[in-house]
Amino acid sequence: MRRANRPPGKDLAGGGALAPRRLPGRAAGRRRDRRGRGLRGPLLPPALPGALTRSELFDDLVRASLRRLEPRWARRMARLEVAVEDVPPSDGPSWENGVPLGRSFPAADGLPDRVVIYRRPIEFRASDPYEAATLVLDVVVEQLAHLWRIPPQEVDPGYDE
Q: CB within 8 A of 44, min separation 6: which ones?
């Protein structure tokens, strides 16, 4: 990776003057903490919920929304791709009505139907985790309804406007 403030050919990947030095006798990747009290390691075990990042938690919300809809729409969802992006692209549609929370793309040129959910705008609007889960479900339902050209209440009978 090259940064703007590094001269060409002197990045970390290619070695050179900026490459970190390795002391003799130390195993690569394992070193003691600053004060010599023990090996550095994760603060929480990976299985605990606190070890998940915001984006991983958001991905779980999207997966849960899709699992809720899957029994009813398994055949259509088999040909569907769902992606999560942090923010909508700046060259996207007109934002006169606000920042989009998601977009849908119909199948074209050999690509399947696609739905993109934007994480940061949804997190910004949600005041707590329950509201975030509800908002993610609503956005997924609305995007699928738009993609399949049916009312959102038909996609999810629990959807209310």
A: 50, 51
φ and ψ of 114, to 5 deg: -135, 145
Three state DSSP letters for 97-146:
CCCCCEEEECCECCECEEEEEEHHHHHHHCCCHHHHHHHHHHHHHHHHHH
What residue ranges do the domains of the chain occupy?
Answer: 59-87+100-155
Instruction: Give the C-alpha separation, 74 to 67, whole Å.
Output: 9
* Residues 152, 130: Cα–Cα separation, whole Å: 21
Tell me which H or E stretch contains 68.
helix 54-77
Q: Of the candidates 78, 83, 69, which has an alpha carbon nearest to the alpha carbon of residue 150?
A: 69
Q: In this structure, what are the phi and psi dihedrals at residue 154, rounded to the nearest 5 degrees?
A: -80, -35
Does this model's pTM top 0.85? My answer is: no
Q: How far apart are CA 92 and CA 148, in angstroms?
A: 21
What are 71-122's pLDDT values in tens digits? 999 999 999 999 999 998 876 555 567 889 999 999 998 899 999 999 999 9
Residue range 59-87+100-155 forms a domain whose CATH class is: alpha beta
